[in-house]
Write the structure tokens for this entry.
Amino acid sequence: MYPTLATALFSLLPLTLAANIPITVGDGALMFNPSVVPAEVGDTLTFSYYPRNHSVVQSSFANPCHPLASGGFFSGFQPLSAGPGPVEFVVQVNDTNPIWIYCSQTKASHCQNGMAMVVNEPASGSPNTFEAYQLAAAKTGNSTSPRHIAGGIFVSRNSTSTTGRNSTASSSASGSVASASSLSKSSGTGSSSSTGSGTGSTAGSGAGSSSGTNSGSGSGTSSSNTTSGTNKPSPIVRFTGAGSKTVTGISVVYGAAAFLIFSLI
């Protein structure tokens, strides 16, 4: 009984080590920063938005600038006059398969001009590199967007932490994209609302108006495509670490397990 309990406590360690990886969207250039990110199971990707109007969409390597046929995540468009915006889009990673991501803004052809990223880029030697994805994206026509916001949650920007696991990020995504329950509701007309983590709401239609002190902006479709980005190719920023790993709770878990073990000796 006691060894089993100690084993259960030690099994909690991976949860305490999950990282929250911050990613900026369109901060001064048509790019995600970082654009190549390693992540572990349980880590969260937290997207912060900058002017003027960007989205976060999951795609496949074989079909850049277009969403997955099923599943995946989509943040909707986030029109802003200044950044970072008041809300962030949070997605949880549930396996270590590659996750290809792009901005579906059609004005200035964001995806075609390099505004993309990858989580868990294939190992060296694979032809499916981030550079290959960008080259293929440059040859595509207009980008497309999913009809509805899905696959992640919106949280107030001040409620997320840059270290440790984000406890509000209950939605998940994977390279193959598992079922990710959306906490957003969207109509076919392009308006949408999101409960996020309970701290705010988003509403977007046309130009994407926002309401509430912790409100963001979004759109269920690509109807609010407005931006003034440049056409310069996006640089590649590689994130060499999997984010800051919190040690909160490790000493507690080890201490409790050690106490149970040694008290029986």
